[in-house]
Amino acid sequence: MVVNATGYTAVDRAEGDRQGAELLNAVAVAALAEASAMVGAVFVHCSTDYVFDGTRSQGWGEHDTPNPLSVYGCSKLRGEEQVQSIAEQYPGWRWYIVRTSRLFGDPGRSESAKRPFLASIFARAETQDRIEVIDADMASPTYVDDLARAIAELVLARVASGIYHRTNDGACTWYGFARSALARVGWKGVVLPIPPSQYARPAPRPAYSVLRTTKLPPLRPWESALQEYLAMSPSALQLRSLQVR
Ligand SMILES: NC(=O)c1ccc[n+]([C@@H]2O[C@H](COP(=O)([O-])OP(=O)(O)OC[C@H]3O[C@@H](n4cnc5c(N)ncnc54)[C@H](OP(=O)(O)O)[C@@H]3O)[C@@H](O)[C@H]2O)c1
Fold it and tell me: Does CATH place domain 2-244 in 3.40.50.720?
């Protein structure tokens, strides 16, 4: 079994580096998928809600037509297409495209991975009593532990090859996510919602990219997953200890 969780995930940087995004999010995916198919390994590929344009408020099911807005989203869609076209050449091969969104959890030990959103929010909250966060981009936060378990379940249950949406249930904006996390660690400052126009972001984002699961039962609500994660996150524990002093 091969799980591809790599990605050119710097969404804004990708706008000026189409080739780099394409190489990692599509060309490399094709190579990994083909190698997996050749040896008969199950292939799981992580994809994204950013393949949709976010123009509908009822969310996006697995069968809806993607229409990415950004270079990152286009390159991830190309990666999905590569997996599907290799599947046509290898009948019986098991493959899963798992679209997910707004990941949070243990950031791991990678030097190159970007700083997670919650870690940045907690770092700001340590030194400021008022922080501004964009109140836009409705999506479903997803705990990486829940995603990993969901992927294992897909594979072990031997469900049919195809595209699956796996996120925690429910949705919020970046502001809603930050406010919920800071309240849960007892932060006493103020979180202020700001419109996206006040924050320069080169890549366009989908306004409403909630992924609906039409093939499998939903995962637990994001709030309960967040509660569990914050109980052991070092940056959350540090901020919590500063609040009780
Ligand atoms: N983060 C999200 O909110 C989100 C939402 C939807 C979908 N996704 C998808 O989920 C997957 C994981 O996202 P993430 O946020 O965990 O990504 P991430 O933190 O940016 O990590 C990506 C990893 O890809 C590896 N990588 C980068 N360039 C590579 C290269 N040239 N060769 C080999 N490995 C390379 C790096 O591994 P090392 O540096 O450790 O070697 C890095 O740790 C991606 O496919 C992403 O598109 C993420």
Answer: yes
